[in-house]
Specification:
The protein is α+β, with helices and mostly antiparallel strands. It folds into two domains: 2-177, OB fold (Dihydrolipoamide Acetyltransferase, E2P); 187-352, OB fold (Dihydrolipoamide Acetyltransferase, E2P) (Beta Barrel). The chain is built from seven helices and 21 strands. It has helices at residues 108-111, 121-130, 163-177, 187-190, 245-260, 370-399, 428-438; strands at residues 2-3, 5-7, 10-12, 19-20, 22-29, 33-39, 42-48, 86-95, 100-107, 138-147, 150-160, 196-216, 224-227, 236-243, 278-279, 285-292, 294-295, 298-299, 304-306, 324-335, 339-352. Strands 1, 5, 6, 7, 8, 9, 10 and 11 form an eight-stranded mixed beta sheet that branches. Strands 12, 13, 14, 15, 16, 19, 20 and 21 form an eight-stranded mixed beta sheet that branches.
Length: 442
């Protein structure tokens, strides 16, 4: 979900990145009071509900078994005399004019503000409830006010929503909650905050999409990517891809256009984007797409994967190196120590799948091979075939002695007759009757 951002006292529109002094929204989810503790600039421990650390927190980063017992939640433990573990709340808001649902992280100072002429979030909700109004049915204005070296978010009621507006808002919320398939819709409509592109018919290499991975310099001889928790430093999903020179030229042109029209670009940016692809000995080029597994402690969704007919593939599907794919990416121009355009991974469509083969922990050695098994079965099959052919020849020879046109007599199983009781000698008339039954003798 899109995170609503603000900078220098202005909100950034989630589609255009245009700075706005205020925003009119509908609060659709008030969220839950949470806490987060940072070690330096890295998120170490957090809790949704402020009862116990989240299950995703690493064991060696857990500060206490209960938030109630944690020393990091005690006021006076940080440089500004506040608690090192800070309160926050993530609410969800709808921008009704655009039909966009966004997350908004509200810090403690914006939650519990005590000004009499301004509403922090809790005070705003309480004010509406006293007036028998629900925050979900009010058009709310968000605005920022500078407070020392930061900005606080304040909330102001604009007006109640009409029944028609409420019905429209519910439809927009439902549509926004449905997962988007970038391969069935115009990708520019799906991701309008930044330019987007679909890289077509390229070869997948080293896909890591089933779970988050991070590079571990201590793993293996030269380090390698290892599975990790989404909130660990460096955790991300990634996919390299191999393309022809013509495909690389097309993608570079798209990236250069995004780089040239980047918002906030100034004269300090180099005029031309350096080629970000690695050329192979066979003349092909390798590019890379990534997606961070979490932003500000909030996990991102697994990159969506679809088959050639756009049916979604399960979360347990494992893409393999060598498969042919289309890749939906969002182009993010940046300027830090270096400048460039990152390809943020949004979705993968599998056109041709190479079956997965699990890696073997063994080295090659002299001895039995799978070919030996195939050869053994081939010999057995040949022997069986020869035997069947020989039996067939014998059967044909025996058939020569059978007259197919001669009707074969039907063999009738004899019926066992019951033994009759001996009849005592009787008069001559009785004997004559018995003789008549069996017939006269010749």
């Amino acid at each position: 979900m899109i995170r609503l951002k603000n900078i220098d006292g202005c909100f950034l529109h989630p589609r255009t990145n245009c700075p706005l002094n205020s925003l009119q929204v509908v609060v659709i989810d008030k969220g839950e009071l949470s806490r987060s503790y940072y070690e330096g600039s890295s998120l170490a421990c957090w809790s949704t509900g402020c009862i116990r650390p989240d299950k995703a927190v690493l064991e060696n980063k857990v500060q206490a078994s209960r938030c109630l017992d944690c020393t990091k939640s005690i006021t006076g433990g940080s440089f500004d005399r506040s608690a090192p573990c800070k309160f926050y709340q993530v609410i969800k808001v709808l921008l009704p004019e655009d039909g966009i649902v966004c997350e908004l992280r509200v810090s403690a100072s914006s939650l519990f503000s005590k000004e009499t002429n301004k509403f922090g979030f809790y005070k705003y909700v309480e004010y509406l409830e006293k007036n028998r109004e629900e925050v979900e049915e009010i058009l709310t204005e968000l605005y920022l006010v500078e407070h020392y070296s930061s900005y606080r978010i304040y909330f102001k009621p604009v007006r109640p929503l009409s029944e028609e507006e409420l019905a429209t808002a519910r439809q927009q919320i439902k549509a926004a909650s449905q997962s988007l398939n970038p391969f069935t819709r115009n990708i520019e409509e799906v991701y309008m905050a930044n330019p987007s592109h679909i890289i077509k018919n390229v070869e997948a290499r080293y896909p890591r999409l089933d779970k988050p991975y991070r590079f571990d310099s201590k793993a293996g001889k030269k380090g390698k990517s290892v599975p990790c928790e989404p909130t660990e430093d460096g955790a991300r999903y990634e996919l390299d891809f191999c393309m022809s020179a013509a495909q690389a030229k097309e993608l570079y042109t798209v990236m250069q256009n995004a780089y040239g029209s980047a918002k906030g670009r100034d004269k300090t940016w180099p005029a031309k984007l350096e080629i970000p692809f690695k050329k192979q000995d066979d003349g092909t080029f390798v590019g890379k797409t990534t997606l961070k597994a979490a932003y500000s402690g909030i996990e991102t969704t697994l990159p969506a994967q679809f088959d050639a007919k756009n049916d979604p593939l399960g979360s347990d599907f494992m893409l393999t190196t060598g498969s042919t794919v289309n890749i939906a990416v969002e182009l993010i121009p940046f300027k830090m120590a270096t400048t460039g355009v990152s390809l943020r991974l949004r979705g993968v469509q599998v056109l041709k799948y190479i079956p997965y083969k699990p890696p073997s922990p063994f080295e090659t050695a002299e001895g039995f091979t799978a070919d030996d098994t195939k050869s053994m079965f081939a010999k057995t099959d040949a022997a069986d075939k020869n035997m069947l052919e020989a039996e067939g020849q014998i059967t044909k020879q025996l058939d020569l002695f059978v007259d197919d046109e001669e009707e074969q007599p039907e063999i009738i199983e004899p019926v066992k007759r019951k033994k009759k009781k001996e009849i005592a000698p009787a008069e001559d008339e009785a004997m004559a009757d018995i003789i008549d039954i069996w017939g006269e003798e010749d």
